[in-house]
Amino acid sequence: MTTPLPSRPTATPARTGRGLQANRTRVALLLLVPMLVVLAAVAGYPLLRTIYLSFTEYNILTDPAPKWIGLGNYWFTTEDGVGLGVLQIPEWWQSVWNTVKFTVGSVLLETVLGLAFALIINSKIRGRGLLRTAILVPWAIPTVVSAQMWNWMYNDSFGIISDWGRRLGFLEAGQSFLSNPDTALAALVAVDVWKTTPFMALLLLAGLQTIPGDMYEAADVDGASPWTQFWRLTLPLLTPALLVALIFRTLDALRVFDMPFIVKGNAPETITMSIYARQELILNSQFGFGSAISVLIFLIIMVFTAIYVTSLRVKFD
Known about the structure:
Elements: H1 13-53, E1 56-57, E2 67-68, H2 90-122, H3 128-135, H4 137-140, H5 143-153, H6 160-167, H7 184-208, H8 213-221, H9 226-254, H10 258-264, H11 273-283, H12 287-312
Antiparallel strand pairs: 1-2
Helix pairs in contact: 1-12, 2-3, 2-7, 2-9, 2-11, 5-10, 7-9, 7-10, 9-12, 11-12
């Protein structure tokens, strides 16, 4: 009598699924390795180098090598009681305050206008395709070109916007919105709103197009007005896309450099954190002090992002 061979245990579906998932995870990690290596080379090393230089005194024109001074670039008081650290300098706090005002003003206006444009483009109107193309023109123009164009329009001699301001009584003869310290920052906000509102509209339009049309049909059957539909249906379902658009634009505005620098340079009334960092790094050749400013900008943006994502529960998936 022959003894039957023991049957080979069959893999359960759960075990097979776990093995397949583990294999996919390993393959995904292997595919990510080249990207992580490149990212560490092009982003990680410069960041670590900047953090190191922020603890040193280093003038690239006169010093042969960085000299370690600890936290001296951040906080240092002389024997005469003069504060020389970046956190003790009024110019730094002026740049922070300018950046905050610029960020709040521009992001708020861009969000409101971008939402309005997105709602118009998403509605069933004639010429919607042409309107969608036209609204992207300001965003497609390079920042250098648009900034210089607005600089000419703000010119106190031949600028059309300055001419309107004088005709309406907002400006005196020979004055422009950029030359007036009280209106210079608002003028830069207007340029950024014109330039970046299409970007916000595009992001919000993508969110609007994910909302099923059946919900609006059901709301119409229930007799809900367009205003009620917006507040009770559109805005709640658009909130995830709105929050992602807000965080992208806010981070962009916090590190703004090109447009304000092209239009106003290092003017105290419009200097931003990035312009101030460039001033110390490039103009004054103070790589140690300028690196400390750069680290502070990085920390401000990182803390803001962490608070933003956790408190508002922003999801990027």
